[in-house]
Amino acid sequence: MMNLLGRPDIEAGEVFVNFNQNDTSLAVATRSGYSLYSLSSVDLTLDKIYSCHTDEIFLIERLFESSLVAVVSQRSPRKLKVCHFKKQSEICNYSYSNTILAVKLNRERLIVCLEESLYIHNIQDMKVVHTIRDTPCNPNGLCALSSSSEHCYLAYPGSVTSGEVQIFDAINLHAKTMIPAHDSPLAALAFSPSGTEIATASERGTVIRVFSSLDGSKLFEMRRGLKRCVAIASLSFSTCAKYLVSSSNTETVHIFRLDRSAAEQADSKQTSDDWMGFVKHIFDIIIFFLF
């Protein structure tokens, strides 16, 4: 996910880009609507799936490869619209008390993040099933929702002064655990595909950690460097969860290998080749699209 508002080099074009939950498509929000692209091409071509010319969109989320998209416009930043893009119809809309800062989807839940609250919707009928109120001030809308239905967890900051992570069970609607991940406030969160692990980074950006989302135990710790602090923009696990990628304001991407048991490492070379090929393919597509 990347919010491009305020970037002078693209002030007249794209304002938000986002992958779907399994990285098979790319959503691009612009000042005149949004477009959806397939990432299945092998010839560096972004195949356009759909394009909608409407209000300026600054948030968009697509549900896997389905026709369901959730959008928020600049004109109505407190209103969420859920649409069926193939039928070109609006399924429903909801208004909230403050600006919507983030929207997350999986096959069970839709999450709307405001600065001091989180709304949990049932994806089947879009009704609000739970509200987490009076959360620590979260002006960047930092949160993460597992794409797994089995471990359907929501993560969000538990403090404005330290890097506490609150893990909430979005199916059974109760707090799961609290993880004291960092001394500094959080900057990035990401669940593994299974939802059983969560990667975290703080505003200092020098240390990235991976914890069990089931019991909060620390599994891995990686250092980006000690000389300077950086702003981590995003974290993402590979499909096999053996690699973790981080991006930052230094215009560099770090790929960390998460060493597992010997049994899991037996096929590591093939996994590495597959993952590195996938990373190169995604980078080539993005570079081709942006430049």
Automatic annotation (TrEMBL):
Q: Which UniProt keywords apply?
A: Autophagy, Repeat, WD repeat
SMART domains the record matches:
WD40
Per the record's keyword annotation, is Repeat included, yes or no?
A: yes
Q: Which GO terms describe its biological process?
A: autophagy
Entry's InterPro entries? PROPPIN, WD40/YVTN_repeat-like_dom_sf, WD40_repeat_dom_sf, WD40_rpt
Transmembrane residue ranges? none
Ligase listed as a keyword: no
One GO cellular component, as annotated: cytoplasm
Gene3D superfamilies (UniProt xref): YVTN repeat-like/Quinoprotein amine dehydrogenase
Family to which the UniProt record says this protein belongs: Belongs to the WD repeat PROPPIN family.
Instruction: Report the protein name in the record.
Output: WD repeat domain phosphoinositide-interacting protein 2
User: What species does this protein belong to?
Assistant: Bactrocera latifrons (Malaysian fruit fly)
